[in-house]
Design goal:
35% of the residues lie in helices and 13% in strands. It has 280 residues and is an alpha/beta fold. The protein has a domain of 193 residues: Decaprenyl diphosphate synthase-like (Undecaprenyl pyrophosphate synthetase). The chain has a six-stranded parallel beta sheet, sandwiched between helices. α4 links the parallel β3 and β4. The longest helix has 24 residues. The protein is globular, with a radius of gyration of 18 Å. The termini are far apart.
Amino acid sequence: MGGQTSPGGVSSATPAGDRPAAASRCTRPRWVAARFGAVADASDALDPTRIPRHIACVMDGNGRWAQARGLPRTEGHRAGEHALFEVVDEALELGVEWLTVYAFSTENWRRPRDEVRFLIDFNEDILLRRRDELNERGVRIRFVGRRNWRVPRRLIRRMDEATELTRRNRRLTFTIAFNYGGRAEIVDAVRSLIAAGTPADKVDERRIARHLYDPEMPDPDLVIRTSGEYRISNFLLWQLAYSELYFTEVLWPDFGRRELVAAIRDYQQRERRFGAVDGG
């Protein structure tokens, strides 16, 4: 998928406008967690009772990873596939129930035509190569985004095939946000409410949530963004109201099991209040 690095090859296209911003690194909010020094092995103990149910990833840094090695940007997307499936593997081992990745944003169509074409072809190829393996491991594949706007029909067919093949699986729900934008999702939900004839005085949070792209998806507990950028870039805007945010300097192709465990360890050290005050 494009911009941010996407699923196991699912290439992630960084949202338009997301470029290194030196000023943003001068003052970091308390909730920004960077990677310092070596990260413990993935086998290190985590509290099994506090594993996030839903982890969402903004897979950023593929292009910079490739450029730093004198490679074409497309090679960064290829390297991102390995990182993605390391994360999938670890999520399965830890008992994470939902994993959502930002593969291609509604803004990524602004990228060079050749890169967009590569990302579409690459993601189609990944689905073909990986869907049987994921199905055998009990992974349910889902997609969110404006699938009927600009997305080639052949890719839509691959999405439908993967969704149908894995629909009965429940070990891990792997959601790929493709041609996705958080604002677009909210707009589409409101349009759906209007089309359903919902009176204005009956519109509330619960009804809006029922008209999102995947009403079954729980809000993310933990959102991870790689590459040292401190933005959410139009990702799951409705769902992130109380999510814990974790930012790391690691570029997505270098993100793997150990880095995921480090993010979860940081998450487990936080107290989630959901707008309330400390009980103490």
